[in-house]
Amino acid sequence: MKNKINIYLVEYAINAILRQKYKSLFIVTIFTLLTFLLTSVFFITNSIRYELDSTVDALPQIIVQKIKAGRHYDIDVNLVDDILGISGVNDAVARVWGYYYFENARVNFSIVGIDKYEQQYKNSFTNLVKDFDFDDINGTATMLVGSGVKRTMQSNYYKEFFNFIKPDGTLKKVRIAGIFDGDTELESNDMIIMSKDLFREIFNFEESKATDIVVKVANPEEIATVVSKIKLMFPDTRIITNHDLKVSYQNIFDYKSGVFLVLFIVALFTFFIIIYDKSSGLTSEEKREIGILKAVGWTVDDVLKEKLYESFIISFFSYIFGVGLALAYVYIFQAPLISNIFSGYSQLKTSFELPFVFDFQTLFLIFFLSVPIYIAAILIPSWKVATLEADEVIR
Amino acid sequence: MIELKNIRKIYEANKFDRVTALDNINLTVQEGELIVLKGASGSGKSTILSLIAALSKPTSGEVIVDAKQISKLSDNFSSVYRRDNIGFIFQKYNLIPTLSVKDNILLPLVSLNPHAKEVEEKIQSVMKRFHIEHKENAIVRNLSGGEQQRVAIARAYVNNPKIIIADEPTANLDEKLSHHFIDILRELKALNKTIIIATHDPLFFGLDFVDRELEIHKGKIVL
Amino acid sequence: MILMPEVLTILILNVIFFIFAVIAFVLSVKIFLKWNFNSTDTSQYKLEKQSFLAATIIKYIFAIKVPLFLFFIFTLDKISHVLTGAMCGAGVVDATVYGTYLLILKIINLYLFAYWLMLHSADMKEESQPYTKLKFGVFIGAFFFFIPELILEGLMFSAIDIDRIVSCCGTLYSSSASSYISNIFLIDTPVLLALFYSNYLLILIFYFLKNRYLFAISNLIFILVSIVSLIAFFGTYIYELPTHHCPFCFLQKDYYYVGYAIYALLFGGTFYGLVVGFIDSKYKERIKNYNVSIFFTSLYVLLLSLYPIIYFIKNGVWL
């Protein structure tokens, strides 16, 4: 097969695009906008998914929660010892954590209590207890806050201290000792870390209870077995593994971008119709041009090729342009507006930074959704043009 | 070389409105011959030209060029045949007004996909031959009628065709430019091209280098 | 139903393919029945024009289909991350009853479309267009392979159930499995290798003898023999694991995407081998096809042979 690309045809195609300034500009603008939107959405979901994935990876392999009357309830700390007795279990830690609603700013902080002498269930915490002492010398309680929390507190004039309102209505003054950096932004943004004792004091949490228990298993293959054993020992518990979480996150995001894609298809279809219409209705000038080309020896194949080159160049250019714009929009300007759709509800949650995740498959995906569809739209009109009777249109 | 056998061409707009453009035309043209087809407009001379150039097909009869049945060629191979054999100078020139002189002359070469060097040589030589090289990059729309015609001639000549066809070449030219065209014609004849001209301009009648003059009237050769 | 952007994209393109394929099919039937090159009526002239539309559509479908096939494999790999139990595309293919047939159809269709393109280019070179009837006849046949492919693809994606645990390739492609694939492992390795290399030798002999029909037939057999030996023998050396036979895993990054090269070489070599036998092209053209075929096939054999040889040099033992 000798299918050398005819550079004269390519040149002619480029020339034709440039000569029809307004038509080309119109197509490029809409096409670029469409690919830009689509690419942005995929970049954002990829980034958030990456953040979530690493958050989930950092999560404990197994979480054991107590369920009472179908609701999540505080679990007995004693269960830890029983779980540690199961073979294959490396470690089990009772966690205390919860949400504190800060009325002035109308946001929720997630508060985690940690114990210095315990094995930490997160690497970032292990470093924290090493570098930081929660037992303040002056007797005032201290805490570490995420960067988002810090901002919120500052804008409410809590610069060095913060007053928690305890269940009985009294205040608890806690010093802000510093900013906490987690493995990922999404995780640490709204987080406050303090000692377990302080946590229990603020929320009036019983000494013998914990929020849940996290379990570490040496061999990931054994997670399923350990889960079934725990379930057998404590039938009133709910057990969540990090794999479950990962799959459900993946599904949520695929679903969200799927829904977006459906909307996108509608837009694309409209575009398809416009293009079909535009390229079908030729002016007599344009028809004459094709007639001339055929009269001087261009074959039907030549004309078809030229038209296809034209549409490939214009759609590929728009594709590259749209992807480039999306890169800048998402990773340099942090995707204002669109990112809100995909990341949660709370004001605090949205302010994390989108990490740069580059995935070739996404580029292919967008390519398949743009260039072939555009070419499909011009295929039949191009054929009509290419088979015009030269004799009739140049008279 | 060119042979038209029992050609009939009927333009049929609908069942009740048919125009017989050509009626039983028989014509043989030898290689290197220069023929002038005379006749009023609508007599059918343009139709003969477009049949020879395979731009249209006869209703019945055969067009044979170099022992090949032109009237049977498919759309695609009609184009190939034109590209390889025919240089057509149209009455309205049929240039692409928004392209430059050079790009217009390039058009017949495009589908052969030749080397850039070869293309450049060919274009430069025809532009010189027909005195248009000083307008190489000018947009055709901005040229005068005489210049446009020279571009059209250069384009018809660039693929070095055996047959040159001209339809009313002087219809849009003043007398001086028309004489100039006749000079070019003389030159082409000296290059041993087969030339067929359709015209009603008396300037072409009785020229010393014209081999035959044929009068077409109402779709028939009358002289 | 699995609502992934990748899956939706494939389905959208399938809808376009479907519409276009139907148009091309209708035109093909018309052309196949009424084509008469010697006729000069307007109906023949119209058919001629329509043949361009049909040809352009088929070329379009093929041009998108080839990269889309790679994208399809990519997508299967991606779905395998979501499916519990699946390690690579094999698990996804096996997850539904449609997977295996879909994959086989896809491969057959690649050959069919590529064959059509060769016919078309041979046809367009001659003024008398000798293959027009044949090529549209071929497309009418290909249509009945292509439409089921589109339908099966839709069925497969809608049948994938995320919550069901599927088999991983380790169990699918193992000698202890009870599927028909496991029959492969009943053949002794020396016999299989002898088959593989003697088949290649036959191709070489027919190449030098320039016997086009035998060359094509030996290429046809080679498709089967080489895939079987790839699963049963060469695969284990790519993974350097005596029990891992999966023909999908080596498409993944961990094996430097070598699978794409392997399958591309196999396809290129055998396809041109078949072209030599099936298309009555000019002598010069045919010699070129012979050379392209033998080049790809030799490269394929060389590439596969290198894996066990390098393994032996490194470790001093066979698996």
Structure description:
The complex is a heterotrimer of chains A (395), B (223) and C (319). Chain A has 395 residues and is of the alpha+beta class. Helices cover 55% and strands 18% of the residues of chain A. Chain A has two domains: 7-55 and 247-393, no CATH class; 75-210, no CATH class. Chain A has 14 helices and twelve strands. In chain A, helix 11 runs antiparallel to helix 13 (360-386). Chain A is elongated and about 100 Å long. With 223 residues, chain B is an alpha/beta fold. Chain B has one domain: Rossmann fold. Chain B has helices spanning 45-52, 75-85, 101-110, 116-129, 145-157, 175-190; strands at 2-14, 17-29, 34-38, 60-65, 68-69, 86-89, 163-167, 194-199, 212-217, 220-221. In chain B, strand 7, helix 6 (175-190) and strand 8 form a beta-alpha-beta unit. The longest helix of chain B is centred in the C-terminal third of the chain and has 16 residues, at 175-190. The model of chain B has no long low-confidence stretch (mean pLDDT 90). Chain C is mostly helical and 319 residues long. The model of chain C has no long low-confidence stretch (mean pLDDT 87). Chain C has helices at 5-34, 42-82, 89-95, 99-124, 132-159, 169-172, 189-209, 212-239, 258-278, 283-315. The chains are: A alpha+beta (395), B alpha/beta (223), C mainly alpha (319). Chains in contact: A-B, A-C, B-C. Chains A and C meet through helix 9, helix 11 and helix 13 of A and helix 1, helix 2 and helix 4 of C.
